[in-house]
Design goal:
With 395 residues, this protein is an all-alpha fold. It contains 13 helices and no strands.
Amino acid sequence: MSHSQPARNESAWLRPMVARPADEQHRTATMLELFFDLCFVTAVAQAATAFEHELAEGRIGHGVLGYAMVFFAIWWAWMNFTWFASAYDTDDVPYRLLTLLQITGALVLAAGATEAVQHEDFTVITCGYVIMRLAMVAQWLRAARADPERRRSCLRYAVGILVVQAGWVVRLALPESSGLATFAVLVVAEIAVPVWAERAATTTWHPHHIAERYGLFTLIVLGESITAATGAVRASLDTHAALGDLAAIVVGGILTVFALWWLYFAQSAPRRLTTLRVALLWGYGHYFVFASAAAVGAGLALNVAHATGHGHLSDHAAASVYTVPVALFVILVWLLHHPTPVRIDAADVVHPVAVAAILAATFAPSPVLVTGILAALLIAAKLTFSARGATKASP
């Protein structure tokens, strides 16, 4: 067995954290990674619920901003763990303990999500976030010790993360008036750390493993949307709402979520992840994919409540908080997985046309149902073009 592939003895307490091969065969997500995702969805659910509350109260701008800020903390901590694990997962006792510490931080973050979104109080959420990130510092220091070839890169990660975490803690003591500006500066700093670190030496992330991990989190976020919508329908029925009044929303929501799932997994992400630049753009772009997928559930739940006479939004405003995240998901999945340069043919035009139609559905009599039908038609169009392409390619 090569030096880069340490022996996987289940009883081992400590293994050298050497780089795993980027072309390792049969690389799949581990049970610990799945557990990690499952716990993180708690934070996603809390953020989406708080977002839905703000929308229902008519504070759309405030809700969108708070949700975007909280979701960044969730996504960035998840993403950093995912790419690190792809390169350095040893599955030994220290690795597991540090990962469980990150999960603890995620649960603390989830506990503070409501206060952050609704009242701009980021104290608890910052504590949870810093716990997660400091655990990553320890992981990178382990990797730096065991992987001389990429030591500079690992140390850059550790130092960069540590410095930015100090910034998040200091931010809590600053005046409220500087909250948004300091948040933006620290977000830029967080995003810059991997770019700076990878210039020293590229870590050995595994394209198929990364694609699988992102796909699994997409499943979890879409599942959370279904859960949120189901809860809203149940709550409406408990108040003696007629099922017929909700039928169009339920059918439209189901069609939409099914279509978003189909659209995402019709792509071949590993083929795109061939260079660091593409991988960074693809990985960073998923912030909007994940956030919009979770927001679909909040928008669907809000429209259920709106249909039963609850909420403070106009018909068009209620529709827009559903159609906009759906349109954002559709266009981003297409852009992130589309080969470059962009070809101009019927198969390429169908996505922008679908997005325009979904946004126009905001003004339809039954916007959720129309959106679901349009999303289903998009999938049908993709299948048709794919079949035609296969026919032309065959001898």
